[in-house]
Amino acid sequence: MKFNILGSCVSRVSMLNGNRDMHGVYGEGMELGYFLDKENIVCAMLPSPFSTEEVASVRKEELWNKKAIHALKQCMDKSTVQLLMESDADFLVIDLYDFQNDFVIRGQEIFSSCAAEFMNTKVFRDTAQEYRLANFFNLPSALWRPYIDAFFAQIMEKYDADHIILNRFRSGTYYFGKNGLVNLLPDNLKNWYQCSDKYNVQLRELEEYIIQLIDPYVIDLSRYFFCDENFWGAPHGAHAEREFYRESYRHIIEISEGKSEKRCIDVPDFIAGEISEEYSREIRQHPLDIDSTLKLLHELKAQDDVLWMNLFYRLSLCYPNDARIEQMIQEI
Question: Sorted alphabetically, which InterPro entries does this protein's record hold (predicted)?
Fold first, then answer.
């Protein structure tokens, strides 16, 4: 079974069953076709602002992350759709992380910024005065949604709705810190080339639009999980608890094998009562401060934010005999 990924680490690490340092797809008989990241699907549908010579001049030696060379050139030469259409993959896994990033305007054309890597190139240094930044979520959707329609009209000539999996994404507001606290993600980790929770509402509306448009399989688990410094080593708005990726992987494989009983998977294991021993062990290894976490739990619950359930499960596992937890269990 071969998968293409159009998205980010949200889906790449999901396809690796949470093993973020591996490559490809986890599991025997599973294969990765293309991992096409740093590209949003509106930019992919529009002409390139770069000449063939400019694209060819970009060298991996210029980049801080040498592995980003293919993603950068894909964004510059607008080869994303062509690669997907010519691929022999069975499934397309999509997440819309890159829609929260700013895109770059050059003249009358636009392209995905590919994080900060483009700014390391000679092409950028020679033409730096020609670029402006913008974000689709700050523009009227009537200007860009027709390109969403056009993208999926073309893609569905290759992949039908039963072979497209939308892995929904919620950018993190909080992260589990190594200090045992639930911390706010600082603004300096929400730069123009990164995801940002200020666009979460618009992103969810766009995902709903796409679901209505093409009726793909949907994995809607990201909103139940926190970002996790313990797993990733550093906080980031898209770096979730390892359990998110494990559960997403399991559901993606079940979908690909025709074993999924639901079109939309939107209940995590800790709510369904099917929690793994591995996740329980990870929670116990990193207990949260109960007083500050309870305060946040009640705030989230008052806001109807499903994240409160994650905190409740963690506290009930680590502090089962605390009177406040016992009372909440009785109330629920």
Answer: DUF6270
